[in-house]
Write a structure and sequence with these properties.
This protein is an alpha+beta fold. The protein has one domain. It contains seven helices and four strands, in the order αβαβββααααα. Strands 1-3-4-2 form a four-stranded mixed sheet. β3 and β4 form a beta hairpin. α5 packs across α7. The longest helix is centred in the middle third of the chain and has 19 residues.
Protein backbone atom coordinates (compact mmCIF):
# COMPACT_ATOMS: atom_id res chain seq x y z
CA UNK A 1 0.00 0.00 0.00
CA UNK A 2 1.27 3.48 -0.70
CA UNK A 3 1.08 6.35 1.79
CA UNK A 4 -2.07 7.82 0.27
CA UNK A 5 -3.91 4.51 0.54
CA UNK A 6 -2.77 4.03 4.13
CA UNK A 7 -4.31 7.33 5.15
CA UNK A 8 -7.51 6.62 3.25
CA UNK A 9 -7.83 3.14 4.72
CA UNK A 10 -8.67 4.70 8.07
CA UNK A 11 -11.09 7.19 6.64
CA UNK A 12 -13.08 5.32 4.03
CA UNK A 13 -15.65 2.80 5.23
CA UNK A 14 -15.90 1.14 1.83
CA UNK A 15 -13.20 -1.45 2.46
CA UNK A 16 -14.28 -5.06 2.22
CA UNK A 17 -14.05 -6.04 5.88
CA UNK A 18 -15.58 -9.30 7.06
CA UNK A 19 -18.72 -8.75 9.14
CA UNK A 20 -17.48 -10.76 12.10
CA UNK A 21 -14.30 -10.11 13.93
CA UNK A 22 -12.62 -10.01 17.29
CA UNK A 23 -13.74 -7.13 19.51
CA UNK A 24 -10.58 -5.41 20.73
CA UNK A 25 -12.25 -2.67 22.78
CA UNK A 26 -15.88 -1.74 23.37
CA UNK A 27 -16.80 1.34 25.38
CA UNK A 28 -20.03 0.02 26.79
CA UNK A 29 -21.59 -3.17 27.95
CA UNK A 30 -23.85 -3.91 24.98
CA UNK A 31 -21.33 -5.47 22.57
CA UNK A 32 -23.54 -8.56 22.24
CA UNK A 33 -26.27 -6.44 20.61
CA UNK A 34 -23.94 -5.21 17.83
CA UNK A 35 -25.28 -6.11 14.38
CA UNK A 36 -22.53 -5.67 11.73
CA UNK A 37 -25.08 -5.69 8.90
CA UNK A 38 -26.38 -2.34 10.20
CA UNK A 39 -23.02 -0.59 9.61
CA UNK A 40 -23.38 2.68 7.69
CA UNK A 41 -21.09 5.39 6.43
CA UNK A 42 -20.04 7.79 9.19
CA UNK A 43 -21.51 11.27 9.37
CA UNK A 44 -19.51 14.07 7.75
CA UNK A 45 -18.89 15.64 11.18
CA UNK A 46 -17.36 12.45 12.56
CA UNK A 47 -15.33 11.98 9.36
CA UNK A 48 -13.89 15.45 9.86
CA UNK A 49 -12.85 14.60 13.43
CA UNK A 50 -11.47 11.22 12.33
CA UNK A 51 -9.29 13.04 9.79
CA UNK A 52 -7.77 15.08 12.63
CA UNK A 53 -6.98 11.93 14.59
CA UNK A 54 -5.60 10.26 11.48
CA UNK A 55 -3.43 13.31 10.81
CA UNK A 56 -2.00 13.11 14.32
CA UNK A 57 -1.14 9.41 14.06
CA UNK A 58 0.02 9.06 10.45
CA UNK A 59 3.48 10.69 10.77
CA UNK A 60 4.29 8.31 13.64
CA UNK A 61 3.34 5.08 11.89
CA UNK A 62 4.49 5.51 8.31
CA UNK A 63 5.27 3.47 6.29
CA UNK A 64 3.17 0.82 8.05
CA UNK A 65 0.02 2.46 9.43
CA UNK A 66 -2.84 0.23 10.52
CA UNK A 67 -5.79 0.03 8.13
CA UNK A 68 -8.93 0.94 10.07
CA UNK A 69 -12.31 1.72 8.51
CA UNK A 70 -14.90 3.92 10.22
CA UNK A 71 -18.63 3.14 10.48
CA UNK A 72 -21.67 4.29 12.42
CA UNK A 73 -24.15 1.79 13.75
CA UNK A 74 -27.02 2.31 16.19
CA UNK A 75 -26.46 -1.19 17.60
CA UNK A 76 -22.80 -0.50 18.51
CA UNK A 77 -21.84 -0.37 22.21
CA UNK A 78 -20.99 3.36 22.28
CA UNK A 79 -17.71 2.96 20.35
CA UNK A 80 -15.70 -0.13 19.53
CA UNK A 81 -12.75 -1.46 17.58
CA UNK A 82 -12.92 -4.87 15.92
CA UNK A 83 -10.29 -6.69 13.90
CA UNK A 84 -10.89 -9.28 11.21
CA UNK A 85 -8.17 -10.53 8.90
CA UNK A 86 -5.73 -7.65 8.42
CA UNK A 87 -8.17 -4.79 8.87
CA UNK A 88 -9.66 -2.94 11.78
CA UNK A 89 -13.12 -1.47 12.01
CA UNK A 90 -13.97 1.43 14.32
CA UNK A 91 -17.73 1.54 14.87
CA UNK A 92 -19.58 4.21 16.84
CA UNK A 93 -23.13 4.65 17.99
CA UNK A 94 -24.50 7.95 16.62
CA UNK A 95 -26.65 8.38 19.73
CA UNK A 96 -23.57 8.00 21.94
CA UNK A 97 -21.48 10.48 19.98
CA UNK A 98 -24.33 13.00 20.01
CA UNK A 99 -24.65 12.69 23.78
CA UNK A 100 -20.88 12.98 24.33
CA UNK A 101 -20.65 15.97 22.01
CA UNK A 102 -23.54 17.74 23.76
CA UNK A 103 -21.96 17.17 27.18
CA UNK A 104 -18.23 17.60 26.48
CA UNK A 105 -17.67 18.98 22.99
CA UNK A 106 -15.76 17.77 19.97
CA UNK A 107 -12.49 17.17 21.84
CA UNK A 108 -14.25 14.31 23.64
CA UNK A 109 -15.07 12.66 20.31
CA UNK A 110 -11.46 13.15 19.22
CA UNK A 111 -10.25 11.42 22.40
CA UNK A 112 -12.62 8.48 22.00
CA UNK A 113 -11.62 7.94 18.36
CA UNK A 114 -7.95 8.30 19.34
CA UNK A 115 -8.29 5.69 22.10
CA UNK A 116 -9.91 3.16 19.78
CA UNK A 117 -7.38 3.81 17.03
CA UNK A 118 -4.65 3.69 19.69
CA UNK A 119 -5.29 -0.05 20.00
CA UNK A 120 -4.41 -0.45 16.32
CA UNK A 121 -1.33 1.78 16.68
CA UNK A 122 -0.18 -0.34 19.61
CA UNK A 123 -0.19 -3.44 17.41
CA UNK A 124 1.76 -1.92 14.53
CA UNK A 125 3.97 0.90 15.83
CA UNK A 126 6.46 0.12 18.59
CA UNK A 127 7.81 3.17 20.44
CA UNK A 128 10.42 3.22 23.20
CA UNK A 129 8.40 5.42 25.58
CA UNK A 130 5.39 3.08 25.77
CA UNK A 131 5.44 0.74 28.75
CA UNK A 132 5.03 -2.80 27.38
CA UNK A 133 4.11 -4.03 30.88
CA UNK A 134 0.88 -2.01 30.69
CA UNK A 135 -2.40 -3.60 29.66
CA UNK A 136 -3.64 -3.00 26.09
CA UNK A 137 -6.15 -0.47 27.44
CA UNK A 138 -3.45 1.60 29.13
CA UNK A 139 -1.28 1.49 26.03
CA UNK A 140 -4.25 2.68 23.92
CA UNK A 141 -4.77 5.50 26.43
CA UNK A 142 -1.11 6.51 26.06
CA UNK A 143 -1.44 6.53 22.27
CA UNK A 144 -4.60 8.64 22.57
CA UNK A 145 -2.82 11.11 24.84
CA UNK A 146 -0.10 11.35 22.20
CA UNK A 147 -2.69 12.12 19.52
CA UNK A 148 -4.25 14.87 21.67
CA UNK A 149 -0.82 16.50 22.01
CA UNK A 150 -0.20 16.28 18.26
CA UNK A 151 -3.54 17.99 17.59
CA UNK A 152 -2.48 21.03 19.66
CA UNK A 153 -5.77 21.28 21.54
CA UNK A 154 -6.30 23.96 24.15
CA UNK A 155 -5.87 22.97 27.81
CA UNK A 156 -9.66 23.38 28.24
CA UNK A 157 -10.32 21.02 25.32
CA UNK A 158 -7.88 18.44 26.71
CA UNK A 159 -9.54 18.63 30.13
CA UNK A 160 -12.99 18.13 28.56
CA UNK A 161 -11.69 15.19 26.54
CA UNK A 162 -10.23 13.49 29.60
CA UNK A 163 -13.36 14.08 31.63
CA UNK A 164 -15.43 12.45 28.89
CA UNK A 165 -13.23 9.37 28.49
CA UNK A 166 -13.14 8.88 32.26
CA UNK A 167 -16.95 8.64 32.23
CA UNK A 168 -17.18 5.92 29.54
CA UNK A 169 -14.75 3.08 30.32
CA UNK A 170 -14.92 -0.34 28.79
CA UNK A 171 -15.43 -3.31 31.13
CA UNK A 172 -11.73 -4.10 30.59
CA UNK A 173 -10.48 -0.67 31.64
CA UNK A 174 -8.66 -0.31 34.95
CA UNK A 175 -9.57 2.55 37.30
CA UNK A 176 -9.16 6.13 36.16
CA UNK A 177 -6.35 6.55 38.72
CA UNK A 178 -4.33 4.08 36.63
CA UNK A 179 -5.49 5.38 33.26
CA UNK A 180 -4.71 9.07 33.77
CA UNK A 181 -0.92 8.56 34.06
CA UNK A 182 -1.00 6.68 30.73
CA UNK A 183 -2.81 9.59 29.05
CA UNK A 184 -0.31 12.03 30.59
CA UNK A 185 2.69 9.96 29.46
CA UNK A 186 1.52 9.86 25.86
CA UNK A 187 0.62 13.53 25.96
CA UNK A 188 4.02 14.66 27.23
CA UNK A 189 6.00 12.24 25.04
CA UNK A 190 4.35 13.72 21.96
CA UNK A 191 4.90 17.38 22.79
CA UNK A 192 2.11 18.24 25.24
CA UNK A 193 2.84 20.57 28.13
CA UNK A 194 2.53 17.94 30.88
CA UNK A 195 -0.61 19.38 32.45
CA UNK A 196 -3.00 16.99 30.70
CA UNK A 197 -5.75 16.03 33.05
CA UNK A 198 -4.44 17.93 36.04
CA UNK A 199 -7.96 19.21 36.67
CA UNK A 200 -11.07 17.09 36.27
Amino acid sequence: MNTRLLVLAFLLPCLAIPAGGEIICALGSTAASYNPSADERPSSDVMQLARLVNGAFTPMCLPKCPAVALFRNATAPNAMLTVASRYGKLVYSPQFFTSVYNSYGESAILAIIAHEYGHAMDETTPVAWLKRSWTPELRADAWAGCALAKMNLSSKAVAEALTAVSKYPSPAHPSWALRLPAWRLGYTQCGGDGAAGSKR
